[in-house]
Sequence to fold (136 residues):
Amino acid sequence: MSGSFITFEGIEGCGKSTQIERLAKRLAKLEKNVVQLREPGGTAIGEAIRETVKHPPGDNPISPDTELLLMNASRAQLVQQVIRPALANDCVVMCDRFYDSSLAYQGYGQGVEFAMVQRAIDEAVGESKAKFTLLF
Fold:
């Protein structure tokens, strides 16, 4: 893969999306091909999963294990459908959250066993790791 993959991590409202937009504009001026993504989402399947996670149907909340698997299903689709092809085409891929969020939300936040979190991440992303992660 010849492109660059940059992820942006941080709490809600800390400026990740704003900084992605600013960097994308700067890179576009340098004639770089830029792909901006978000997690969960970035594909039709990912957006459907996003809606389910954010607004679960019925009266029961999503269990932490289910949320972990849904997030990584969305992530796997994003990696296979968008990230890998964009990197192969020498694009700069910028993603608003990526697998570090699963460690934070499902691991630390919801108490899912870290070995399970890491296995799910490894299955979803394979070798598609960020070159840089910016933490806000």
